[in-house]
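Dear Dr. H.,

I hope your travels went smoothly. While you were away I took the liberty of generating a structure for the chain from your last submission, since the lab meeting agenda had it listed for discussion. I wanted you to have the full record in hand beforehand rather than looking at slides cold. The sequence, exactly as received, is reproduced here:
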Amino acid sequence: MTAGPPSGSRCRIARTDGRRSSRLTGVEEQLLAWFREHGRDLPWRKTRDPYAILVSEVMAQQTQIERVGPRWERWIDRWPTVDALAAAAVADVIREWQGLGYNRRALALHRAAQHIAAHGWPDDLTELPGVGRYTADAVACFAFGKDVLPVDVNVRRVSGRTGHAFSPAAAQALMDLGKSVCLARVPRCAVCPLADSCPSRGERFEPLRRQGRFEGSFRQRRADALRVVLAGSQPEDSEAVAALARDGLVEVRDGAVSLPSPAP
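The corresponding predicted structure, in token form, is as follows:
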């Protein structure tokens, strides 16, 4: 199944001059033609709802995109609007997030929804809890049509290797090319639509520093402790419980650990 027109095409094209403009237009045309045939069919690419796009971006921050799709759809079915999420109990939000990892993202998303419900969307989206520069630019581009290229690791890699200054219209295509073709260590140059004009064609690259293992880590202990609380029992790992409590993921009252209570 093809992805259809990229959401990034709704962002205005960056202006350039002379032969540079003509060359970049040709490169982007090649990239977008490849994207129309090979782009990922992700459900949030079919909407311009800033809330739905914000949810997808927060979920995808540290979770494999293949796992995000069905969870995003379930989330949007349960809380279809920013007001619906803002009114949800934080305990329900934590429960719904289970399996996506890094549970603090759920709290930040809930707080962002509450901020938006109370004050509207800020001009500077980094004012929202849990929203950094990339996420702010992604929502600005894909939802609000702003003339900004959201730069994630894939966009940075393709832009750096090709030496091209891509416009916001190419955002989704760059993400997909970096994900499936312009790989971190051994890029698949033989099938890359930009290979003929790429100065890095045929190169191999050093492995990036890998994230520490989850198995046996303190992150795992935190996740296990939270899982016990969700099951209605009491965790025995006091250090993990203390860390969860500092992040607002659990409450400890009179020695009993529970999910956060609704605000009075």
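Two observations you may find useful: The beta strands are 251-253, 256-258. The first strand starts at residue 251 and ends at 253.

With kind regards,
E. W.
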